[in-house]
C-alpha cells in the first residue's frame, strides 16, 4: 500500500541536512519524510480513504 493522499496525490519526499561539525561536514544519509495521512470517509464514496491533513481541512471547509 502506497503512502499517498487519495485526493491530491501528495507522497513521500527525500530530505536531509548537512551538519557542520568543527569545519567538516558530517555525511548523514538522506531520510524519507512521509505526509500526515488520516483515514476519512469521502462524501458520495463507499469506504474509507487516506487523505493528507491539508485536504482534510479543505474538505471540512467545503462541508460547512
What's the arrangement of secondary structure elements?
Blueprint: E1 13-15, E2 19-21, E3 24-26, E4 31-33, E5 37-41, E6 48-52, H1 53-63
Antiparallel strand pairs: 1-4, 2-3, 5-6
Task: Describe, in plain words, how this protein is organized in 3D.
The protein is an alpha+beta fold. It has one domain (13-63). Helices cover 17% and strands 34% of the residues. The chain is built from one helix and six strands; from the N terminus they run ββββββα. The chain has one helix at 53-63; strands at residues 13-15, 19-21, 24-26, 31-33, 37-41, 48-52. The strands form three sheets. Strands 1-4 form a two-stranded antiparallel ribbon. Strands 2-3 form a two-stranded antiparallel ribbon. The longest helix has 11 residues, at 53-63. The protein is elongated and about 55 Å long.
Mean pLDDT: 87
CA radius of gyration is 18 Å
| Regions with little confidence, pLDDT below 50 for 5+ residues | none
Distance between the termini: 32 Å
Globular, elongated, flat, extended or rod-shaped: what is the shape?
elongated
Q: Kindly give the count of domains.
A: 1
Order the strands across the largest sheet as they lie in space. 1-4
